[in-house]
Amino acid sequence: QKEVEQNSGPLSVPEGAIASLNCTYSDRGSQSFFWYRQYSGKSPELIMSIYSNGDKEDGRFTAQLNKASQYVSLLIRDSQPSDSATYLCAVRGGGGSNYKLTFGKGTLLTVNP
Amino acid sequence: ETGVTQTPRHLVMGMTNKKSLKCEQHLGHNAMYWYKQSAKKPLELMFVYSLEERVENNSVPSRFSPECPNSSHLFLHLHTLQPEDSALYLCASSQLLTDTQYFGPGTRLTVL
Questions:
Q1: In what order do the strands lie in the sheet with B18-25?
Q2: CB-based contacts of A67, cutoff 8 Å, min separation 6
Q3: Per residue in B64-85, pLDDT tens?
Q4: I need a labelling partner for A108 at 20 to 30 A (CA). Which of A29, A38, A76, B37 fits?
Q5: End-to-end CA distance of chain A
Q6: DSSP states of A15-26 as a string?
Q7: Whole-number pLDDT of residue B9
Q8: So what's the pLDDT on residue A7?
Q9: Phi-psi region of A31 (alpha: psi -120 to 50; beta: other; left: phi over 0)
């Protein structure tokens, strides 16, 4: 059974700081990795995807992937109160299916003004 | 309208009722998904359709019955639900099964 683990939080950071969100996964054959943001009462919104080892930057967001350690992270620079949300890590690929997304429970991030 | 839409946004039903959730995608995608999101649990994939054919039924109880009449529409028919079925039901679509999934706003279901 594939598993995706995240700290549930809440993770609290001051405005302007770097927020670091972490995710580990159990299936070594996983190929694609995603970060979704979900505001309270809303649906998940894709903010980053990463497919190869290393860093991928998009604006204030940086995704980091280390397949050897089965670890993916999301860094949010210059955190804003509007970044306060639950961040879901999702993993696809590996044994049994090349299209099913397996989600973690999410990490609640609070950015304090 | 653009993106993925879902109706109704909120639904309260008794255990003996029959109701349906509707999802429509305006993105020209070929794959559609139903997910269940319960409190304190990860998103759970329920059903997957690709080109109107069901390719995944993730051990979902038969009281949930999906229908995909065409590549733009997806329904989830509900009957004799249990209180533990109360959750946020999310529809998603993607161009192909291996492409990025885009979610609709969800239907908040409460079973009394």
A1: B4-7, B18-25, B73-79, B64-70
A2: A28, A30, A53
A3: 999 999 999 999 999 999 999 9
A4: A29
A5: 40
A6: TTSPEEEEEEES
A7: 95
A8: 86
A9: alpha
If you write DSSP's letter for every residue of B11-51 in order, what string do you get? EEE-TT-EEEEEEEE-S--SEEEEEEE-TTS--EEEEEEET
Asked if the model's pLDDT at residue B1 lies above 60, the reply is no
Contacts of B43 in chain A (CB under 8 A): 44, 88, 90, 101, 103
In this prediction, the residues of chain A whose per-residue pLDDT falls under 50 are: none
- For the record, the structure tokens of A27 come out as 């299936």
Residue bearing tokens 């329904």:
B75
pLDDT computed for residue B79 by the predictor: 93
User: How close B99 comes to chain A (CA, Å)?
Assistant: 8
Q: Which residues of B48-57 are buried (b: 16+ CB within 10 A; e: fewer)?
A: bbbebeeebe
Contact A6, A21 (CB under 8 A): yes
**pLDDT score of B33:** 95
Looking up tokens 């649906």 gives A43
Q: Which two tokens stand for residue B24?
A: 């429509």
